[in-house]
Amino acid sequence: MAPTTPPSSPKRSEYSIDKCRFFDAYDRKKSATSLGQICRRRDIDIKPSTARTWLKKREILGYGARRRTRKLSNRLGRKSTFYAEEILPKHIDEIKILEERYSHRFQLQEDSDPLHGN
85-116: per-residue pLDDT in tens? Predict the structure, then answer.
């Protein structure tokens, strides 16, 4: 059976034009118009919880909240596959040897070498 390409999924509403329409309608609303009424409009049609989330993000990001935003983080990039706490205890002896003088290091290597008669 030949491999097939999966069907393209529809864009999520937070990445589409609905977000801009909602912000425009919210900014132009009259004082008597509720958030629920704006969300129920035909051209917007989103849940009030989504609208509240968008408004919170707009408070933080400002005008940039209209566009698609990536997740905000203090540290970007891949997660580390190992941590120093895991590696350091296992190799502490090797690190100490590397820090010592060359002649002393050479002596330790001879003592541990089975070819030199230990």
Answer: 666 666 667 766 666 655 665 666 666 665 55
Q: Of 47, 60, 67, 54, nearest to 27 (Cα)?
A: 54
* DSSP string across 25-89: HHHH--TT--HHHHHTSTTT---HHHHHHHHHHHHHHGGGGGS--PPP-SS-SPPPSS-HHHHGG
Residue 55 forms part of a structural domain? yes
Q: Does 7 map to a domain?
A: no
Please return the burial class of 116, using the count of CB atoms within 10 Å of its CB with bins 0-12, 13-18 and 19+.
exposed
Domain count of the fold of the chain: 2
Answer yes or no: is 4 within a domain.
no
> Containing domain of residue 49, as a range?
13-66
